[in-house]
Structures are given as C-alpha cells and as structure tokens.
Design a protein that fits this description.
The structure holds two protein chains of two kinds. Chain A is an all-alpha fold. Chain A has a single domain (2-39, 79-289), classed as MetI-like (MetI-like fold, Orthogonal Bundle), CATH 1.10.3720.10. Chain A is 71% helix and 0% strand. Chain A starts with a helix and ends in a 5-residue tail after the last helix. Chain B contains ten helices and twelve strands. Classes of the chains: A mainly alpha, B alpha/beta. The A-B interface holds A 117-118, 180-182, 184-192, 199-200, 203-204 and B 55, 57, 60, 84-90, 93-94, 96-98, 101-107, 115-116, 119-120, 164, 167.
Chain lengths: 290, 326
C-alpha cells in the first residue's frame, strides 16, 4: 500500500477538496447502506413494529416532535430516518447493479463493434444512436410500462438505457488501439482474436470507463427515483428513496413536508458526492488535462 | 540455395471508394534459408503490404487477388486462418517500426514474451521463464531476470526494440519480417540494433525480409535486394551488384540520394517529382515522369523484368550499363 500512498493519484487526491468531500459523502452513504438496519430500532417494513398512534410526527425540533423519530414519521408511523436508511439500500443497490450490467454489456458490444467493424459495427452503433436521440427517462418509462414494475424490471430498464455510453466510448478507444502496433504484433504472433481483444485491447480501453461508471451510479439513482416517483419503479414493498418522496408528496401541501423532503435531501447528498468524486477522477484519469 | 520463401506474382489490391489500389502488383521474389533479403522503396511503394500479405493479415477492403506465397512449398495464400495462426509467430514473425507502440503498455515485458511461448510451444512455466531470460540476455539486456517484470515504459526506445526482437525470435521462427526496424531509433542505436539482428539471424539460422526505405541500411545487412516502385518490382539482384552498378534509373536515384561525405555536393541529390497516384497509374512505365532517360516508348509499353549484367534483373527499356551515370 505504500506504493499507493506515494502515488501521484493520492498526492492529487489529498489536494482536491471536491475529491475529499465527494469521497466522505460516498463513504458515509456506504456506511449507512451497510450498517443502516443496525443503527435504527425500527424496521419500517415490519408491520408489528409500527404504531399508527405515531403517524405524522414532525421532526424532533418542531412542536410535537418525538425524540424517538428525529426526522419525524410518515402516515403509517414509520420513522423517516429509518425509511431513508432502508430506502438508500435499494437505491444504491439498483444504481450499482445497473451500472455493472450496463458497463459489461456496453463494453462487450463496443469491443465487438470496434474490433470487427463492418455490419456488426453498423448495427450496434445505429441502435446506440437511435437510443441517444431519446431522453433516457423516456426510454426507461416506455420499457417499464411494457415489462411492468419491480426492482428487476427497473434494472433491465436502466441497463437498456445505460449501455450506450460505454459502447460508444469503448468503440472509439478500440478503434484507436487496434491501429497501434502492439495489436498488430499480437496478430502477427498468431494470437486468436478473442485473446487479442481480452488481453490487449480491453485493458487499454478501461480507464475512461471508470469515470463514466462512477457518474452513472448517480444518474441511475436519479432515474430510478424519477421512475418510482412516477409510479412505474419499485413496488411499495421495496421502497427506494424515490418512492419515499412520492409517498410523502401526497401530503406535502398539507404541511407534512418532512416525509418527502428528507429522502430528497438524501438523494441529493448521494448524487452530489458521486459527482464530486467523478469530477476528480475525470481530471485525474484524462491524460489530456495533465 | 533452396528457397525458404517463394513469392510468385503476388497481387494485393485495396478496393476503396475512390478506386482500386494496386498496392502490390505482380511481385515475385525468393528468400533463401539463412538469407537476408532487403525490400526497398519509397513510402507508399507497397513494401509493408508485401509483409502483411505473407502473414495473411490484409484487412478489408484489401485482398490478395492472385499469386502464390510458398513457405517451404506450402501455399500461404490458400492456407486457412487456423493454419495461418499456427504459422504466425511460430514460423514467421515480425518486428515493427515503432518500439514505442509495438509493446502493450499495460503488460510486463515478461508476460508479453511468455504469451508467445505459451501459444507456440509445449514448455512448462519454468522452462518458459528460462527461455525468456536466455533470449533477453542474447539480445543484450543485462539483469534479464529482473527486467522481465518491468513494463515497456521503463525501457528506452533502443531497449524496447531489443525486446521486440527478442519476442520475434522466441519461438525460433524460420523467417522474420522486419518492417523498418530502425527507422524510429537514433542513428547510434540503429547500428547496434542492426548488428544485433544480423548476429541473431545467423545464430538462429533464420531468414529475414528487411523492409526499409534506407538503402544504406540494406546495403549493410542484406544479401539480396528487391526494389519496389508503385507495387512493382523494378529491380532485384545481389546487394553488391545493385549498390555498385544498378541498372534501373530509380535504383540509381535512390543510391544517389544517399549523402556522400567524401564528395560534398552543394545540395542533396534527389529524385525529381513524386510517386504517382497509385489508384490511377499512367500507361507504360510508372517511373517515366521522373526518369531522366524516359523516351516515347516508356509512355506506351510497360517494361518487363529482364536479366541484365551480373545478377541483376530490372524492368526498364533503357537500363543503365555498369559505369554509366543516369
């Protein structure tokens, strides 16, 4: 590890406020997501632990606040803080898994398109172009209305939306990599194509993907929240942060603002942290900015 | 001498939107066992395409239209991709021009060397490691065992080219195609690398096709020279005969373009004009617009490759005689 702490990357990291703030926010979220259920007394989805007498308690600093529920409760008497911790798990899970799936599929398709060219390239990239001409929320919305709701369906929709950026990036880098002589040299050495792609091209096109993947987790959390808010996302039994906002939104104008504002702030903090860190990575990993 | 590689009437063309590019047009030559054959010509003359044709690595829109490439009697043009993959790296390997890009920056040198051995030999890991160390040492890299775990960027350009040569020699190929192997290197490093290549070729009993635009390099290295112009062989013969008394005006021009320190001319000599557009070659001799000896017939009839004095064959209506200046 001494190698890492002595590296230029770590050196720049220590001097970048956005990187440090971003990673603190992300680390805080990671901790909340992993340890969350152990931090709160109430499991908001265990009906037995709910008490309707506690419904719509305001945050603790307002008149009528209950010290047990410092961010207040919703209409079922669920602790908003506990709901956020549980909801963040689902939001982050969806963001991460959809990112990994998009990244894998997009990278493979981009490599194939870039390496083999021809018809394969045309077909894959035209699909990508068509997709990019629609707003991603629209495609996701359309897919969700076709396949139905649920965490798995959200993952499918997000992956179908998200692979495009990877495919385009990877194809571009692949095209420039395969013109380099070491790829020719690998061909001359008699290496089969799949090995050339895996061992020589793939490792050389990965760097820009790290940045895209980081920022995309934030984007996916937002899209998922939008879908859930629109009622085509996750089911009521697995509420993400977006669904919490939706549930609270119904009573927002009755003055019961806390049920949707706090989950909204949670999303903001998460995405803000991811983007800050992603910005740092982009500056750090882009050789043209050095 | 028996020929290891015999290229017969090779035609490789690129079918582009703006027309058919006859990059290699009816080229024939032989490379004997243990021999170094220099393939010389200007940029765009089709030298590299010949190299890639031999390895069957002509990508679309290019295609080998006709001809034979016989490696020990086996025709590589009609061989399948599976057979070609066995031949690449094992029987024929290649050294590229730019050692800065011909090694993968993300893998250690040892791993890139090992890859070739894993692919083409049945050796176990310890034997492969030893083979890599031996080979690195024989190309003049000290502390070879340590250097195996180094990455390409930790080597200088000349050292990298030594590594590239080591990789090319690892599977003990019978033929090495060196495509401008010293063009990207310093002059001092150039001569080291050339000496190394010649020594290695002799030690391992391999043959080599040395592709270059640099006649000085070729005259030092090669046993035979084939001069290409616009995808055609314009002259071929033993190195000494060509250097001392070329019969084709183009070869003469190339030789005269080498600065001679003993007779300082006020200006460097050059061949006037530029290579014609290869998609749209003139009728007759391709060189006639730049040729000091061109006459009417050169614009009508394409000269055939004919034997001249000594070992020379050239394609010219008005070949130079020994001692004659262009």
């Amino acid at each position: 590890m001494s190698g890492f702490f002595a590296s230029e990357f770590f050196h720049n990291y220590r001097r970048s406020a956005s990187a440090i703030i971003g990673s603190i926010l992300m680390a805080g979220f990671a901790f909340a997501v992993i340890a969350g259920p152990f931090l709160v007394a109430q499991n908001p989805y265990d009906i037995a632990s709910l008490d309707l007498m506690d419904s719509y308690k305001p945050p603790v600093w307002q008149v009528g606040g209950d010290p047990r529920y410092w961010l207040g409760t919703d209409g079922q008497g669920r602790d908003v803080w506990a709901s956020i911790l549980y909801g963040a798990r689902i939001s982050v899970f969806i963001g991460l898994v959809a990112m990994i799936a998009s990244c894998t599929i997009g990278t493979v398709l981009g490599l194939i398109a870039g390496f083999y060219g021809g018809i394969l390239d045309s077909v894959i990239m035209r699909i990508a172009d068509i997709q990019l001409s629609f707003p991603s929320i629209l495609i996701a919305l359309f897919l969700m209305s076709a396949v139905g709701t649920g965490v798995d369906k959200v993952l499918i929709a997000l992956t179908a939306v998200g692979w495009v950026v990877y495919a385009r990036t990877v194809r571009g880098s692949t095209l420039s990599e395969i013109r380099k002589e070491y790829v020719q040299a690998a061909k001359v050495a008699g290496l089969p194509n799949h090995k050339i792609i895996r061992k020589h091209v793939l490792p050389n096109v990965l760097t820009p993907l790290i940045v895209i993947a980081t920022i995309q987790v934030g984007t996916f959390v937002l899209i998922e929240a939008s879908l859930s808010f629109l009622g085509v996302g996750v089911p009521i039994t697995q509420p993400s942060l977006g669904l919490l906002i939706k549930n609270g939104f119904d009573v927002l104008f009755s003055g019961l603002w806390w049920t949707s504002v706090f989950p909204g702030l949670a999303i903001m903090v998460l995405v803000f942290g991811i983007n800050l860190f992603g910005d740092f990575l982009r500056d750090e990993l882009n050789p043209r900015l050095k | 001498m028996t020929a290891l590689l015999k290229v017969e009437n090779l035609r490789t063309q690129f079918h582009t939107f703006s027309g058919v590019v006859k990059a290699v047009d009816g080229v024939s030559f032989e490379v004997g066992a243990g021999e170094i054959m220099g393939l010389v010509g200007e940029s765009g003359g089709g030298k590299s395409v010949v190299g890639f044709s031999i390895l069957g690595l002509i990508d679309s829109p290019g295609r080998i239209e006709s001809g034979q490439i016989l490696l020990d009697g086996e025709d590589l043009v009609t061989a399948g991709e599976a057979r070609l993959r066995q031949i690449r790296g094992r029987e024929i390997s290649m050294v590229f021009q730019d050692p800065m890009t011909s090694l993968n920056p993300l893998h250690t040198v040892g791993r890139q060397m090992d890859e070739v051995l894993r692919l083409h030999t049945d050796l176990g890991p310890p034997a492969r490691l030893q083979a890599c160390i031996d080979m690195l040492e024989s190309v003049g890299i000290s502390r070879a065992a340590e250097r195996l775990s180094a990455y390409p960027h930790q080597f200088s350009g000349g050292m990298r080219q030594r590594v590239v040569i080591a990789i090319a020699l690892l599977a003990r190929p019978r033929l090495i195609i060196a495509d401008e192997p010293t063009t990207a290197l310093d002059v001092t490093i150039q001569s080291q690398i050339l000496a190394l290549m010649r020594r290695q070729i002799a030690e391992k009993g391999a043959s080599m096709i040395l592709i270059t635009h640099d006649l000085a390099v070729v005259s030092e290295m090669a046993d035979h020279i084939t001069v290409l112009y616009c995808g055609k062989v314009v002259e071929r013969g033993a190195t000494r005969d060509i250097i001392e008394a070329p019969s084709h005006p183009y070869t003469r021009g190339l030789i005269d373009s080498i600065p001679d320190p003993d007779h300082r001319a006020p200006r460097l000599r050059q061949i006037p004009g530029a290579v014609p557009d290869i998609r749209n070659l003139p009728l007759g001799c391709n060189f006639r617009d730049r040729c000091p000896r061109a006459q009417a017939i050169c614009g009508q009839e394409e000269p055939e490759l004919k034997q001249r004095h000594a070992s020379l064959w050239s394609a010219c209506h008005f070949p130079l005689q020994p001692g004659e200046v262009a």
